[in-house]
Specification:
Elements (H helix, E strand, L loop, with lengths): L7 H11 L8 E4 L9 H16 L3 E6 L9 H13 L8 E3 L4 H13 L3 E4 L3 H8 L16 H13 L8 E4 L14 E5 L13 E3 L1 H11 L4 E5 L6 H10 L7 E5 L3 E2 L6 H9 L14 H7 L3 H11 L7 E2 L1 H13 L4 E2 L1 E2 L2 E6 L8 E6 L10 E6 L2 E5 L19 E4 L4 E9 L5 E8 L17 E2 L1 E3 L4 E8 L24 E8 L11 E4 L3 E5 L8 E7 L8
Parallel strand pairs: 1-2, 2-3, 8-9, 10-11, 12-25, 14-20, 18-21, 23-27
Antiparallel strand pairs: 4-5, 5-6, 6-7, 13-24, 14-17, 15-16, 17-22, 18-19, 19-20, 23-24, 25-26, 26-27
Helix pairs in contact: 2-11, 7-8, 11-12
The structure holds adenosine-5'-triphosphate and magnesium ion (2 copies).
Subunit structure: Monomer.
GO molecular function: ligase activity
Subcellular location: Cytoplasm
Length: 551
């Protein structure tokens, strides 16, 4: 066990260990429904559940909570496994499927009926809601509540055989229609669904509901601490009831914590699925998505995501985390992993008029800044024809513009100080090229005595630069809480969330491979995308360099 528990759930596990509550066993589970890809919220739950197992020398099960035949798909199972592994966790032998328990769960449902604790109810969904009543008002008992055990067993068996249409009846727990906890007012446990299931096929036409399946799956797997988000707080009483009423030998306990909410982000899988299906993004792994697959493709590392989850912590009070904290964590992580290179996103041609014709000089460019304890450098060709970024030139700049302008000087990174002498334009008045002079005494960027040069900009040699597609991402949503206005959340999509440019990058990047990371100086951290090929490079901007996170 950890020397010092770091959150209230670990404290609880440690206390249970002290009194030998589960005979020394610590078993958690991460139970996604395979109806979508995992997102950063799930990462919090994964880090917590697998983290506790690691800390207490226990196990964490990966369980597909697959009791809803109409939304689940094996593609999602594979994606979930891939993403949990990528995040750095290993379930070993402990891969489970709730759908493997259907027969066992059915037996337990019959047992409940036999014990007089469940009945088949023919009320429609609307009627059931009406009978349930409202908070503060007692509900009404269903007219089917006092069916005999024999009749209930007969009807439940016929439900299983497929004799009834969907919605015509349900199996309900016989609990208390006057309970102040609405969840306890004879909750439905099984419903009819004539639907094909991705694992059990057409073997079943009745499916257990979450409140019945989840706690019993926990019991079957001998889970000790069943950790879930706060929305399930009111379901805990029912969780305990089902475990007790079915008289299963293993009694797991549910503990709730606050889910992760991020501003500028939606995390409901239903909404994420809409974004994918309606083409607002290019797939579940679109780098703008808050999915683990999207973050991986964007260039986030599993270490950064785990660090973020650690910083967010585990608490019981709901809060919204600033997405800038995530970006800040990613920057810190990438700082020591990303060699610095030169790239120009919106190329503007520069001719150095006093450069010896045809000459190419090899400059030495260290990959790492002084505060990163790594070594290595590459050669960068310098010539009389360069590109700089359009943003680094202004024809009529304000005083505090420390980049290039007519008559002004700037330092070219690792190279020389140049001064702009002429601006060439096309017929429409658009700047097409700059003419500059260079000062041969400033090689490596040394300013001549008495001259102060404040600006340093990136550049590439025109004849040597390599073209690359660069995908610049901004937040997927333009507002902090998508949908808060009452309109559909998609009306808050940021129309500028993706900008694609054809950049010029330094020649050393010609051999960049999928998955490589770089910092393009002054522009951000970049990741070589899956679509990238030799001769057709594609970079994603993982995150810009500017940090808006207030420490
Ligand atoms: P969604 O709203 O995205 O559909 P869900 O809870 O229905 O989420 P599941 O696949 O059932 O999705 O979630 C698996 C586990 O991940 C659950 O234990 C759930 O509590 C946890 N989880 C889901 N979203 C978050 C979140 N935002 N923060 C922390 N844990 C989460
Ligand atoms: Mg769920
Ligand atoms: Mg859901």
């Amino acid at each position: 066990p950890p020397a010092k528990p770091t959150d209230f759930i670990r404290e609880k596990v440690a206390a249970d260990q002290q009194v030998n509550k589960y005979g020394g066993r610590v078993a958690t589970r991460f139970p996604p429904e395979p109806n979508g890809y995992l997102h950063i919220g799930h990462a919090k739950s994964i880090c917590l559940n697998f983290g506790i197992a690691q800390d207490f020398n226990g196990v964490c099960h990966l369980r597909m909570d697959d009791t809803n035949p109409t939304t689940e798909d094996p593609e999602y199972v594979a994606a979930i496994q891939r993403d949990v592994r990528w995040l750095g966790f290993d379930w070993g032998e402990n891969m489970f499927y709730a759908s493997d328990y259907y027969e066992k769960l059915y037996e337990l449902a019959e047992k409940l009926i036999t014990l007089g604790r469940a009945y088949v109810c023919d009320l429609s969904e609307d009627q059931m809601a009406e009978y349930r009543g409202t908070v503060g008002q007692p509900g009404k008992e269903s007219p089917y509540r006092n069916r005999t055990v024999e009749e209930n067993l007969d009807r439940f068996r016929r439900m299983r055989k497929g004799e009834f249409p969907e919605g015509s009846c349900t199996l309900r727990g016989k609990i208390d229609m006057t309970s102040p906890n609405m969840k306890m007012r004879d909750p439905p446990l099984y419903r009819i669904k004539h639907a094909h299931h991705y694992r059990t096929g057409d073997a079943w036409c009745i499916y257990p509901l979450y409140d019945f399946a989840h706690c019993l799956s926990d019991s079957i797997e001998r889970i000790t601490h069943s950790i879930c988000t706060l929305e399930f707080e009111s379901a805990r009483e029912l969780y305990d009831w089902v475990v007790q009423a079915t008289e299963v030998p293993w009694v797991p306990k549910q503990t709730e914590f606050a889910r992760l909410n991020l501003n500028y982000t939606v995390m409901s899988k239903r909404k994420l699925l809409q974004l994918v299906n309606e083409g607002h993004v290019h797939g579940w792994d679109d780098p703008r998505m808050p999915t683990l697959a999207g973050m991986r493709r964007r260039g986030y590392t599993p270490e950064a995501i785990r660090d973020f989850c650690q910083r967010v912590g585990v608490a019981r009070n709901l809060s919204t985390v600033d997405v800038a904290l995530l970006e800040h964590t990613v920057r810190e992580d990438l700082n020591t992993r990303s060699p610095r290179v030169l790239a120009v996103l919106r190329p503007l041609k520069v001719t150095i008029e006093n450069w010896p014709a045809g000459e190419v000089e090899e400059l030495d460019g260290p990959y790492w800044p002084h505060d990163v304890p790594k070594e290595g450098s590459r050669k960068i060709p310098f010539s009389g024809q360069l590109y700089i970024d359009r943003d680094d030139f202004m024809e009529n700049p304000p005083k505090d513009f420390y980049r290039l302008a007519p008559g002004r000087s700037v330092r070219l990174r690792h190279g020389y100080i140049v001064t702009c002498t002429q601006v060439l334009k096309d017929a429409a008045g658009e700047v097409t090229e700059l003419v500059c002079t260079y000062d041969p005494a400033t090689r490596g960027g040394m300013a001549p005595k008495g001259k102060k040069i404040d600006g340093t900009i990136q550049w590439v040699s025109a004849a040597h630069a390599v073209d690359a597609e660069v995908r610049l991402y901004d937040r997927l949503f333009a507002v902090e809480v998508p949908g808060a206005s009452g309109a559909d959340f998609k009306t808050d999509l940021n129309p500028q969330s993706l900008t694609t440019v054809t950049a010029k990058v330094e020649p050393s990047l010609a051999t960049a491979a999928v998955g490589d990371r770089f910092q393009f100086e002054r522009l951000g951290f970049f990741y070589v995308d899956l679509d990238s090929k030799a001769g057709a490079l594609v970079f994603n901007r993982t995150v810009s360099l500017k940090d808006s996170w207030a420490k």
